[in-house]
Design goal:
The chain is an all-alpha fold and 305 residues long. A 3-stranded mixed β-sheet has the order 1-3-2. Helix 6 runs antiparallel to helix 10, helix 7 runs antiparallel to helix 9 and helix 9 runs parallel beside helix 11. Keywords: Hydrolase, Membrane, Metalloprotease, Protease, Transmembrane, Transmembrane helix.
């Protein structure tokens, strides 16, 4: 079973703390190209060196910024691979799935399902308030965005899934020897990692319900499905369709997307709706397709090895 694959006599919890530090260091190393590029730009243009994240992300045009930011996740993913292989003496497959090989059909189904929902939900928003959106499409920048996004955004989302739903979930299972503690801890940590996003400053802390709720949803489908394939597909679809479809001045990234949201951000039903209605519907769809059973044991039960 998925969590049990990380519970070995040599796999003590302190190793996961060390591994987490190594992954963070790898991510910081991956941020060096962005830092060097920003410093060079400031020196060349004789401008003040930006200090805040918002200012740094506005130094270059959006495609270049996206490329430089995504590089850090390539390094972080390499850090995950090295930590899993050499520190924990596991295979990458063991923190991916309990199956004998990665189920790409699961990843694809989850990706397509959430991509279709994302496009349809945006269509509803657009038809309801078209004045809130402007046409932002420029062919060449958009095609470059498609290439960068298709290559690097899945690496970014996969890195996050391997860290939270794979590596740390097994790590907390080593500590607690049950299923509910890894589920809750990874959801809370995943949500708290978004607390410095500009969306939180604009909408308030109520949006943390969405971030933590999303982490909880991804954790549930990981435990019920005994692998992170569905989470990988969902997360990639969420970020990629978001980057390609609509951007705004107050989100983490501004991209050369098709539309630009000009509305004033506010936290309302759009924050609560996915958590209390949409995610349960997705859970129902996944459970019927993959014949999930024994929910209580898989989500809260004790782990025996």
């Amino acid at each position: 079973m998925f969590l049990e694959q990380g519970i070995k006599p040599h796999n003590k919890f302190f190793l996961y703390l060390i591994g987490s530090i190594i992954i963070i260091v790898a991510s910081f190393i991956g941020q060096i190209p962005l830092s060097v590029a920003v410093l060079y730009s400031s020196f060349k243009n004789k401008t003040e060196i930006p200090t805040g994240n918002d200012a740094v992300l506005k130094v270059f045009e959006p495609n270049m910024t996206l490329f430089l930011v995504m590089i850090s996740f390539v390094f972080a993913f390499a850090g995950i691979y090295l930590v899993v292989k050499y520190l924990h003496r596991q295979t990458l497959l063991s923190v991916t799935t309990s199956r004998k090989k990665v189920d790409w059909n699961r990843i694809l189904f989850s990706f397509i399902l959430w991509a279709i929902f994302s496009v349809l939900s945006f269509g509803v928003l657009y038809l309801n308030d078209p004045q809130n959106f402007i046409w932002n499409f420029k062919l060449v920048p958009f095609l470059i965005l498609v290439v960068i996004g298709t290559l690097l955004i899945p690496i970014q989302t996969s890195t996050e899934e391997y860290v939270f739903r794979g590596y740390l979930m097994q790590g907390f299972a080593n500590l607690a020897k049950n299923r509910w503690f890894p589920l809750m801890m990874t959801s809370l940590i995943f949500g708290s990692m978004h607390v410095f996003n500009p969306e939180v400053a604009k909408m308030g802390y109520i949006i943390m319900v969405y971030y933590i709720g999303t982490g909880l949803f991804l954790g549930i489908i990981t435990l019920m499905d005994e692998g992170i394939e569905l989470a990988l597909g969902f997360h990639a679809a969420n970020n990629l369709t978001g980057a390609l479809l609509v951007t705004s001045d107050w989100t983490v990234f501004q991209t050369h997307s098709i539309f630009k949201d000009m509305s004033e951000p506010s936290a309302g039903l759009d924050v609560i709706l996915p958590v209390v209605i949409v995610y349960p519907i997705l859970l129902f769809i996944f459970s019927k397709k993959y014949k999930w059973t024994n929910w209580k044991e898989k989500l809260t039960g004790e782990i025996t090895t």
